[in-house]
Amino acid sequence: MAMEHDPSHSPRVYYGTELRRLRELAGLSQEALGKLVFCSGGYIGQMEVAVRKPQEELSKRLDTVLMTDGHLLRVYEMVKRSSRYEEYFAAAAELQEMAEAISQFSPLLVPGLLQTPAYARALFEAAQPLKKAADIEAMVALRVGRSEILDRPTPPLYWAVLDEAALRRSVGGADVMSEQMTFLAGLVRARKAIVQVVPFSAGAHALMDGSLCLMTFEDAPPTAYVEGSHTGTLIDDPALVARYSLAYDLVRAAALSPEASLALIESAAEDYANAPSRAVA
Prior knowledge:
By secondary structure, the chain is an alpha/beta fold. It has twelve helices and six strands.
């Protein structure tokens, strides 16, 4: 669902309000402006209602076409500075907050929205060993805080498919993993998330080469987000999003049922609880 159209709400809402004002002042429809700046009219509309984050190069083209003397580029810089997340992930994080449904596949890790503080901390410490402890704790708080999405009165439908490797790779040691698996099972039992596991026995599947997050919205087309180490890409091309959606459906079909997946997660939790505790990055 789009943010309130109040320019004081955030720099991104202000950008959208200004874009709409300037477009209407120029007497252009969303479709007409999109053609002039080499994007779709739908994309223009999504920026205007703050569903999509503006981009630097597009802001430059908009300023040129609308003859605004760099105004939108300056507002874009405000939007960029206002984000709490890494630039490559910021737009995806904001879209997750507005999505009606989030469908995620993770080949190696428990997804961020489902992580415990200890699990997230172990990941950050392994990825950035020279970071100060205070910075690590700030990153943990930011990531764990995102899970409030699932606690809202009307949360998005959240469906995660995990490769079994996400359950078996010990992150932070047995104690951390036992807590993480127990927490994950608790979310499922509380009906806050649907979680399926693709077992090793399933063999090859359609998304072995990376993570995927699909998001659908009330008033905007669906979007896909693919992520690697320190990089991520939002995809809104309808044909490509459809291909990712099919791949997700194939992986979901290859996974264990939600009931069998829950049993496997709880079994993993028990295995870790009974294992000697040892820190593993």
